[in-house]
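Changelog entry

Holo records now carry the ligand SMILES as an explicit input line rather than a separate metadata file. Below, a converted record for flavin-adenine dinucleotide, shown in the new format.
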Amino acid sequence: MLIGVIGAGAAGLAFSVRLNQKCPNAEITVFEAQPSAGQKILATGNGRCNLSNTDAGIIGYNNPFAKNIVDVNEALDFFSSIGLKTREESQGRLYPYSLQAQSVRDVLLTAANSLGTQLITECTVEGCAYRDKRFMLKTSKGDFTCDILVIASGGKAGAPQDSASNGYSILQSFSHTLIEPCPALVQLTSPNKICRILKGMRTKCNLTIGKENEILYSEQGELLFTEYGLSGIVSLDAGTIVAREFANDKASRIHAIIDFAPDFDTEQIAVHYKKFGNLTGIVGNAVSDIIQKQCNGDCNIAAKCCKNQKLIISGTKGFSFAQVTSGGICVNEFTEHLESKKQKNLFAVGEVLDVDGKCGGFNLQWAWSSAIKAADYIGSYL
Ligand SMILES: Cc1cc2nc3c(=O)[nH]c(=O)nc-3n(C[C@H](O)[C@H](O)[C@H](O)COP(=O)(O)OP(=O)(O)OC[C@H]3O[C@@H](n4cnc5c(N)ncnc54)[C@H](O)[C@@H]3O)c2cc1C
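Structure line, unchanged by the conversion:
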């Protein structure tokens, strides 16, 4: 049986290695549109590759479908089997021991090559038809036929501008449903000048995102002020929700409320201001200066500005800056082995499906686990 894989990213590489480990004779060909495999892995985790999270599966995904599939220990055992050691950092984040994303990409590629996976780079799969129980792939380097097809083509986030990713349309041609893709884990844009005044400053705060009187999101974490608005982990997670709101209604009126001192209540802040005449000792000089101008010497207004600093949110930085895609192909149309319920021997793994996770290693974990589950299942009947 010939197995074709569209995409040599995190999921496509993990799938191929796992299947060839289980079935050394499986003939796997992976088609990759880019000049080399696993390019996005190199950019993950700021070049360190936050490859998983100890909490993944218990929490962290948009879709309950992921819960039954994600298995952190299974993924770590898989990496161990191809020679990658890992380490845990804060908040359960797991990294390669080297703290270099290149280690992750390289162990996967070395294993794929040594196990006999055929990798064809700079080869875009342009379309697919199903005839006589076989998948007929039309690629930029000619036609190819396979018995089992695995779509691991990723989503729209962080893909090169000229990317020819068409995994969605191939799956749609087999009657699968596409849930409108949206940028996720993406920075927020704001016209408020405080972002530009504070640009470059990181702060631990509470960020609330609201739409008129409704609270959409509220979390504590690190925020980074930038020229265009807000970045940092807490704003990336908020970006997922904001992008979806603007996709549903371009005229949405979204705001952010920053609490610069979540460990103190309004009264404590007011008392502090009354005593010292500023909030430098709590929020630092730059924020204190802004509050000073806003409060006009009034301790209650100072406390309000510190705990309820309101910004307009005009949108997000979009797909080019997003780490992940929310939306994608509907998972209800797949079995727990990631096989299509509409077409036998058709599988989809990784970000092409409508699964997205929080910031912190959850998305790569989904890529590994979905790939492993599909490979183990195919391996059981090859
Ligand atoms: C800057 C950045 C940082 C990130 N950091 C983290 C992190 O630290 N931790 C984390 O968990 N997640 C992180 N992510 C998200 C994570 O990288 C993705 O969720 C993961 O790579 C998805 O894996 P995938 O294999 O499904 O898709 P991809 O890795 O995108 O791979 C898909 C591959 O398919 C190829 N392809 C697409 N269509 C075709 C076609 N028609 N023919 C041939 N080839 C095709 C593409 O070129 C690509 O190589 C980050 C993402 C970005 C952009």
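Spot-checked after migration. The longest helix spans residues 362-381. The two ends are 7 Å apart (CA to CA).
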